[in-house]
Amino acid sequence: MSDGRDPVVTGLGALTPLGLDAPSTWRGLLAGESGVGPITHFDASALPTRIAGEVKGFDPVAHLGGKRAHRTARFSQLAIVAAREAAADAGLDLEAVAERAGVTYGCAVAGTPETERNVQALLEDGPKAVSPFFVASTIPNMAACEVAIDLGLHGPVNASSLACATGTYALMEARRLILAGEADVVVAGGGDAGINPAMFSGLSNMGPLSERNDDPAGASRPFDADRDGFVFGEGSVAMVVESAAHAEARGAVPYGRVAGAALTADAFHMTAPEPSGRYAALAIETALVRAGIAPAELGYVCAHGTGTRANDSAEAKAIRDVLGEATDAVPVSSPKSMVGHLIGAAGSLAAMVCLLSIRDGVVPPTINLDNPDPDCDLDHVANLAREVPVRAAIANAFGFGGQNCVVAITAA
Q: Which entry of 13, 126, 280, 346 is 20 to 30 Å from 405 by CA?
């Protein structure tokens, strides 16, 4: 049963390697386009991995003006613009909702490019070369606070960092705030912009990145037997979440309902998933139970699907363990095959994909899936989008440190 406090999503905003708004991103995903290409943010010629999923053509000055663009880090800039789009898409009267509207917007790597630049300036030119905006602009809560400042929202504002599960947790937290009656409206999302030399040097030395530099579009290959790692990306995805009663009162048409969510821990390893997928499965199962969705009712799984051997295998096991006999009838795909791993935005993008799949009756493909790994035995939507009615879907997100966050979304 649902009631007036049910959380529904009424607005979407996105900046991704496939586009500077949600509609263009969705079109690119359905078309099976790749937004992965050679790194342009810095000279990567000396690195083993020289490709990434960059947000292309973004002009912060055009959106924020010169002074604000100078004072804010890129991850906050992307968040502000995505949140503006989501608020406009929802048709919010921001002044009317200001005191009952909050923000929950997370990130994983925050202002690492700006940190790297300021540390380099300090070492080369001394203390006076460090920007006076360095500290305030790079701390992890700043995207959430900048969104609140920009939209003029005075309700609860928070920022959580759950590595690659950050975006789904933001939606989970928004759901809690709505159900608890602490807010009528929450702008929820996640984002990151961490394409910088130190980040890529560290990840390259760790070993999880794809090195298909000569074939950027084919580098991200979730569930494919020939996958060799994930593609690092950047982006930001925002959603307006509000109580069903609030949406109805103002005549808003929801994309869908945030019906359930769950958070579990592998408690296993700093970066590797627990191999059996047991605790990822627990997150999936718990989210479905809280949403009142039986496995046979599930119409789509937007997989975490990073393209690393360990992650894809563990996730496939988790999905099959929970869905059981229903597994072969549930389409599964990973948008990371097209945009790369957007880190803090990955879970938010997955949730957006679920909402739009419910609206449009079509699920995007996993591209580059030419030779499915037998260890990942699922109903893969390989290479071409599939028209299929979807009434209920889940967005999976599994982060470094073993944080598993799953959100269940249903038709409104």
A: 13
d(CA 8, CA 255): 7
Residue 254 belongs to some domain of the structure: no
Among the candidates 249, 269, 290, a domain finishes at 249
Based on the number of CB atoms within 10 Å of its own CB, is 71 exposed (0-12), middle (13-18) or buried (19 or more)? middle
Amino acid letter, residue 107: C
Lookup result for tokens 């563990």: 314
Q: Let me know whether 157 and 210 are in one domain.
A: yes
Q: Quick check: is 341 catalytic? A: yes
Q: Are 233 and 37 in contact (CB under 8 A)?
A: no
State which residues form the domain around 135: 7-249
| Cα–Cα distance for residue pair 219/227, rounded to 1 Å | 8
Task: State the pTM of this model.
Answer: 0.97
Closest by CA to 86, choosing from 136, 195, 11, is: 11
CATH number at residue 19: 3.40.47.10
- What tokens does 179 get? 């159900």
Choose, from 164, 354, 376, 405, the residue flagged as catalytic: 164
Pair 157, 291 in one domain: no
CA distances from 404 to 79, 265, 286 (A): 23, 6, 11
- How confident is the model over 148-199, as pLDDT tens digits? 999 999 999 999 999 999 999 999 999 999 999 999 999 999 999 999 999 9
Residues 277, 237 share a domain: no
* Residue of 341, 354, 376, 405 with catalytic role: 341
Total domains, the chain: 2
The verdict on whether 304 is a catalytic residue reads yes
Name the catalytic one among 246, 304, 354, 380: 304
